[in-house]
Structures are given as C-alpha cells and as structure tokens.
Amino acid sequence: MCRFVDHLAAESEVGRKFTLDVEAYVEGKTEGAAALYEQLLQWQGLATGIYSLSLGNEAMRKDGIPKVAKAAGSVARIGLTALATLQAGKKLSPMQRWWLKWRLHAYAYEIFFIDKDLIPRILRDLRKPDALNKHNVAIFPGVAHLLARACGEEV
Fold first, then answer.
1. Mean pLDDT across the chain, nearest whole number?
2. Which residue has the higher pLDDT, 111 or 51?
3. For the chain, how far is it from start to end, CA to CA, in angstroms?
4. Element (H, E) at 153
5. SS3 content of the chain, % helix, strand, coil (to 5)
6. Host domain of residue 59
7. Would you say residue 86 lies in a domain?
8. How many CB atoms neighbour CB 88 within 10 A?
9. Could you report the per-residue pLDDT of 4-25, keeping only the tens digit for each?
10. Phi, psi (5° rounding) for residue 5?
11. pTM of the model as a whole
12. Alpha carbon distance 89, 104 (integer Å)
C-alpha cells in the first residue's frame, strides 16, 4: 500500500535545523528572530492547507493526517506566541504559561518505557490528539525551547 506516511523521512533535518536556530536565538543571536517568525508562519499556513486537503482524501484521513496537521498548526501558533513574547522583552503570565505548556504537552512525542507511571502515561496518551504516537511534530523541541524561555525558565 502507498500511504502518505510512507513518503516521509524518518528524521527531520528541517526540525533539527529549526531547533538549532531557536537555540542560537535564545543565546542572544536576535537577528534570527525574523527568520524564526517567518518559518513558524509558513508552517502554520502549511498545516491549514494540509488539514483541508487531508479531509478530502480517505487515505490521508485513515493515516490521521488531519490530526497531525492540526497539531503542527497548534505547535506553530504556540511558537509564534512565545517568540512574540520574547521579542517584546516580556514573560508570559502564569495563566498563559499553564495554558500553553498544557497545549504543547498534548503534542509531545514520548518514547515508550516501563516504569511505575506506566498506567497513568498510557491513560494520558489515549487523550492525545494522536493516541498511538505514530507521528511526531518535528518542530516540537524548538517550540518547547522557545516556550520555556518565554516562561522565564533557563534552558
């Protein structure tokens, strides 16, 4: 069978580069902010387009692509909020911190391991947009880094 996910690379070079660019930005190389902003805007727009396209394609719906597209759009929006906060020289309010961290955590790609928290993790994962964790939003680590900094955390 020829599915959408079969055409995706196992690793995301773009995601890795984005994370490196974010790390450079938070270390004080502020000239990269405009490029980060543009990239996040592009991903947000791309996610919207893929979501619309995937709703009309049965194979993409079966692979959960609408959920992945919504996830990518949400992660990009969180990144834009964090970046705008940092650019303004501010920190997120306690309520914004809680809300954005909670929203972002829903898209965390976790490696499966057995420990005392196995059952709570399984139950929590069932509530995730992509309960099987088949897909990883490659920009998640970079956005998580931006969000942590916007929350005032040293990373």
1. 80
2. 51
3. 43
4. none
5. 65, 0, 35
6. 13-150
7. yes
8. 9
9. 555 454 456 888 888 889 999 9
10. -65, -20
11. 0.78
12. 22
Is residue 101 in some structural domain? Answer: yes
Altogether, the residues listed in the chain come to a count of: 155
Between 31 and 3, the more confident residue is 31
Judge whether 4 lies within some domain: no
> Are the CB atoms for 142 and 18 separated by under 8 Å?
yes
The count of domains in the chain is 1
Q: Among 54, 16, 55, 25, which Cα is nearest to 136's?
A: 16
**pLDDT reported for residue 144:** 92
- Decide if 5 is inside a domain: no
pLDDT of residue 70: 87
Q: How far apart are CA 132 and CA 110, in angstroms?
A: 11
Identity at 130, one-letter amino acid code: D
The better pLDDT of the pair 101, 14 is held by: 101
